[in-house]
Design brief:
3 domains, 3-stranded antiparallel beta sheet, nucleus, inflammatory response, Double Stranded RNA Binding Domain, metal-binding, alpha+beta
Length: 201
């Protein structure tokens, strides 16, 4: 499966594949499965996505169905997963439970803390298998890989153009369709231009 390298001088566990150092063996195993393992038996029947866990596949399906059953009682924002709603509510409460031990910065999500910590270490644990470029964040690697695969998963429902990145779709919607876009409202078509109400991609 994976090799554990214990660095006794500061009790860190090192990944033998990418040299990422973690404080405990469980975290190392999770890292290995998440980043280096190809074992993803649960396949989406609507796209090419595959998952290690059945629950992750079930959550992913809402991407295709558009179902968002979890609603924020403060602002009405809707989410496809209860965990996403819980994280969102911290925006309203101001809670930032995850603290960087190096600089004291605080974060709403543990994933944001993990990404932040890499700034201090300088590590880039996510290598592109095609060209060797390394990335600090897994999402940046996934986005980069589309350069090699040619995949363009974001499409405009108005003119059926496809885009490699969500930001490219947002720019297109603003420039070509007069949409108002931001991170909270995916886009809003101006009714007098198209005779439609709110829509989302």
């Amino acid at each position: 499966m994976f090799d554990v390298v214990l660095l006794a001088e500061n009790s860190l566990f090192s990944c033998s594949t990418c040299d990422l150092k973690l404080s405990d063996e469980d975290s190392l195993q999770q890292h290995f499965l998440r980043v280096h393992s190809d074992d993803k038996p649960y396949k989406c029947d609507m796209c090419q996505a595959a998952f290690r866990y059945k629950g992750n596949l079930a959550s992913h399906r809402t991407v295709h169905t558009g179902e968002k059953p979890y609603r924020c009682t403060v602002c009405g924002a809707q989410f496809n997963r209860p965990a996403n709603l819980k994280t969102h509510t911290r925006i309203h409460s101001g809670e930032k439970p995850y603290k960087c031990e190096t600089c004291g910065a605080r974060f709403v999500q543990v994933a944001h803390l993990r990404a932040h910590v890499l700034i201090h270490t300088g590590e880039k644990p996510y290598p592109c298998e095609t060209c060797g470029t390394r990335f600090r964040h897994l999402q940046t690697l996934k986005s980069h890989i589309r350069i090699h695969t040619g995949e363009k998963p974001y499409h405009c429902e108005k003119c059926d153009l496809h885009f490699r990145h969500k930001s490219q779709l947002r720019l297109h919607l603003r420039q070509k369709h007069g949409a108002i876009t931001n991170t909270k409202i995916r886009y809003k078509i101006v009714p007098e231009l198209y005779g439609t109400g709110h829509q989302s991609c």
